[in-house]
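Ex. 9. Protein: Tc1-like transposase DDE domain-containing protein.
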Amino acid sequence: MWTFQQDGAPSHKSEETEEWIAKNFPDSISVNGILESIVCAKLHSIVEALKRDLAKVSSDLPMDIINRAVNNFPRRLKKCLEAIGGHFEQDQL
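Predicted structure tokens for Tc1-like transposase DDE domain-containing protein:
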């Protein structure tokens, strides 16, 4: 199931959609991953179209997703430092 939010439709602000986002995008999710999954769901034949879609989707991301990513950053940074820049699993966050 894909929920596209870039068109600003009222249905994308529904309680059901907000609950789905909270359930499917936990605190440890990367904003870049969200952007990539939405924008790359369709093919772009020119770079300008890709840039335009990235800008639109970025501006339409719900603030709670952005806030969770920002609030989670110190924990991610600490884990990265503990791993001396190496790999660590999501469930270690």
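Check your answer against this statement. The chain has a mean pLDDT of 76.
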